[in-house]
UniProtKB/TrEMBL annotation:
Official protein name in the record: Uncharacterized protein
Parts of the chain that traverse the membrane: 16-36, 134-157, 200-230, 242-263
Source organism (scientific name): Polarella glacialis
Keywords of the record: Membrane, Transmembrane, Transmembrane helix
Keyword Membrane on entry: yes
Length: 284
């Protein structure tokens, strides 16, 4: 109301509110992304480590002249959401007996706690779960925020409201894409099977549902994101994208929770804490 009193054109206060709310959502999304991506030694219970032993290793030869040889090796072989291949970062053992020398009692400089050395480096698996879920979560939630903002801004423009397509209109507007989406999900064969052989349909329902989730997350949703951004259908697909983005985030959240429970119950997750120990031998 105060904006109208000072002469702001109609609907502009609502548009500004939509943009501000979406920016607040994206700020929260980025904060959670940073929390996962920058996971560091503060997340560890260092008073009770899973492994008590310490390994002394030498970094690759091309990093020997670097100011921080270990940081050079980590940067070379670890990026984004990948796990750290310890055999490549530490190519050979240092010529010391760590039980007798200071390798087992080396100090960890405070300066290292503000660099990549302080991050949680995953060992013995293909990906770093913190980094992988950080990027996946950021992309999905950013798509959801952008689609909500596009949809709400279009609703505020009277001429654009009729152009926002519902699910049935999208089906009629893009029959090929819709038919392809139904085909790769086996909707028609499973529908006929439900009518003719209900017991067999019930037997196949669970693997079919899992297949549909995988296809939706990795094929159908990316396809609609590409159509939304690259083909000029931002207005027409805005409502559809809000719905699809919400489903994508929901499925990913369920998978994240289940995978965390399964990994915690069956897999011994290992994170490594590294430091340079030049006083033992060069490049250790």
């Amino acid at each position: 109301m105060w904006a109208r009193r000072i002469g702001v054109p109609p609907l502009w206060p609502s548009r500004i509110k939509v943009v501000i709310l979406c920016l607040v959502i994206l700020t929260f999304v980025y904060s959670f992304f940073a929390y996962l991506h920058d996971a560091n030694v503060n997340y560890l219970e260092l008073s009770a480590p899973k492994e008590s032993g310490i390994t002394c290793g030498r970094v690759p030869e091309k990093c020997w002249n670097d100011a921080s040889p270990l940081a050079c090796g980590i940067k070379e072989y670890s990026w984004g959401f990948t796990s750290l291949p310890i055999d490549k970062v530490l190519t050979s053992a240092c010529p010391v007996e760590y039980l007798l020398q200071s390798c087992s009692n080396v100090s960890h400089p405070l300066s290292s706690l503000h660099t990549d050395l302080a991050k949680l480096h995953t060992l013995n698996r293909y990906t770093n779960p913190f980094g992988g879920w950080a990027y996946l979560y950021f992309i999905m939630m950013a798509c959801l925020g952008v689609s909500i903002m596009a949809h709400d801004l279009c609703l505020l423009v009277e001429d654009l409201r009729p152009r926002i397509h519902s699910l049935r209109v999208v089906q009629a507007d893009m029959p090929f894409v819709w038919s392809m989406s139904c085909g790769i999900q086996f909707l028609w064969p499973m529908g006929r099977l439900q009518e003719k052989a209900k017991p067999l349909w019930l037997l196949l329902w669970l693997p079919w549902a899992c297949w549909r989730i995988v296809v939706f997350m990795f094929l159908i949703y990316p396809l609609y994101v590409a159509l939304f951004l690259l083909t000029g259908r931002i207005v027409r697909l805005s409502r559809m994208m809000v719905f699809l983005s919400g489903l994508e985030c929901m499925f990913a959240s369920v998978i994240y929770v289940l995978s965390t429970i399964i990994i915690e119950a069956t897999y011994n997750e290992v994170y490594a804490l590294f430091w340079n120990a030049p006083n033992l031998a060069p490049n250790c």
